Amino acid sequence: IIPEKWKQVDEDSIEDLGDQKRFFFILYQEVRDPAVDEGNKKVGEGNNENSPREVRLNIAKRKVVHEIPDYSKPRTGDGENGRGVNLIGEEKEEGQRQMKTWFMNVVASDKISLDRSIPDSRSTACRALKYDDDLPQASVVIIFTDEAWSPLLRTVHSVFNRSPPHLLKEIVLVDDFSQREELKEKLEEHLLRFGDKVRLVRSKERLGLIRAKITGAEHTRGEVVVFLDSHFVCPVIDSISDSNIQYMGGGVGGVGTFWWSLHYKMDGMPQSEKIRRKNPEIDYVRSPTMAGGLFAANREYFFEVGAYDPGMDIWGGENLEISFRVWMCGGSIEILPCSHVGHIFRAGHPYNMTGRGGNLDVHGTNSKRLAEVWMDEYKRLFYVHRMGLKDMDVGDLTERKEIRKRLNCKSFKWFLENVIPDKFIPDENVKAYGLVRNNGETLCLDTLQRLENKGTVILGVFSCQLGGSSSQMFSWSNDDQLRRETTCVDIDPRPQPNGKHKVLLRECSSNLSKFSHKPYGTLRHESSGLCLDVTDVNSGDDLFFAPCDETKIGQKWRFYGKYFI
Ligand code: UD2
Ligand code: MN
Fold this sequence. Notes:
Elements: E1 22-27, H1 38-44, E2 55-57, H2 89-102, H3 106-110, H4 124-128, E3 138-144, H5 149-162, E4 168-175, H6 181-185, H7 187-191, E5 198-203, H8 208-218, E6 226-227, E7 231-240, E8 247-248, E9 254-258, E10 264-268, H9 271-276, E11 285-286, E12 295-297, H10 299-304, H11 318-328, E13 332-344, H12 362-374, H13 379-385, H14 398-406, H15 412-418, E14 430-438, E15 443-446, E16 457-458, E17 460-463, E18 473-477, E19 482-483, E20 487-491, E21 501-507, E22 515-517, E23 523-525, E24 530-533, E25 544-547, E26 557-563
Helix pairs in contact: 11-12
The chain binds uridine-diphosphate-N-acetylgalactosamine (UD2) and manganese (II) ion (MN).
Manganese (II) ion binds at residues 28, 30, 293, 343.
């Protein structure tokens, strides 16, 4: 996990760091909480004497009695060496039942040792690397709210077991107001075995993961002595199966990017990185954004660059916010191929996602805070997806804007041009952008809410939403593709029984279909010579190609929005 460039630092010199930087790790950790209930609502609504930062530190004198297993010897037992656990009979059913509450198979997880062995998922080149022994120390912050016992404790055990003891300063566990008795009563006792290497910080109110991470980082103050320059480094995130807890490896497939709706996205390795990285197995990858849960940063730099936005609640948005901010304010984000951390990807959130004041859209309001502070005029593209948020009050942004001023950060346009130049901007450098409206005036091209991020989908039409609707926004690009954020309109090569061809939306590539078009004219697919035709098609139906006929009203289209030609 630790890159060579980190320099050793004398603990005594911590007061005058100068431009040297301390660092810490943030790890996400796993699983659930069906039960965060009325408790946090009460706190959220007015119990403000209970400051969100007010936490109790467990400082009982403790001694390390936990023994790190000898992983060079083969271990037997369920799940060892990363294997999945195959349950049968009653247990299998119970495990499946519990998926609904925990979004992972806790029955399977409970069968696995907390000190489980896993295969080394690093490449051969990574394994051959030798790291200096005298690297600086790291603090690891793990936050949780009402997670299941075994995945949570296995996270703690893994960090403890697998970090060279002299490099691990401490593990700071932040309990974000868990309500489950087990976590309230048995956790401290279990942690005693780690001595003061593991500290527990309990919040007296629900903080949400963003404020919980800030709190955790604050509790590492004065303890962290690892130095790093202004980079945030991320591991390769290996996937752990949610159904049988199998540890699956993975490589650096690509980089983190984003959707204009401000959700995290993974993209392939950009050409520029392919060229820059001389040794693809071990060289770091410059990544525009990060998934959010797992990264290391110089501690001082983390706070200097604005930590997280404490106005963000519960879950979501903070990973893109810190990503944009770090790049725009002079830092960078790197993925280290030789660093691997496993994560159980869950299909849902097992804990209560309701934010303060009953907010049911924490990702949306968090993202609006990010868009308003960091995206300049490009926030318009976020609002295309989230029109309802345009007039929503998301709290005071003065302090976040001041950070941007104080650090003299660059514009979002700079970020787009320099950090993520391949990102498609739907209304820049295009020939047209907007709703694609048939001259019959009522029907528009529409994705019909079919999910374009899950593979090729069929394009349809729907009543035009003249006020704007993200499922109806299209661009006619300078290279003549009729496209959306990542998908391009194409022809289904297989005709339907009636001889007509359906219209597809598929991942764009440079050799995909081109369309010719004039305002109020046909949309003609160049290679087939066929045209988009809505004759006899109703709102909500799939669209078809037909032989071009410029006189047919069902083939006359115009962009309702903007032409740039
Ligand atoms: C991903 C990130 C997560 C965060 C999130 C967006 C990874 C592996 N994880 O979430 O770190 O960036 O996207 O916000 O990239 N938790 C609390 N209090 C809360 C809610 C959650 O302490 O109010 C804890 C939770 O118990 C868990 C951690 O935060 O330990 C992350 O939550 P998650 O695993 O549900 O989030 P995930 O992986 O979808
Ligand atoms: Mn997670």
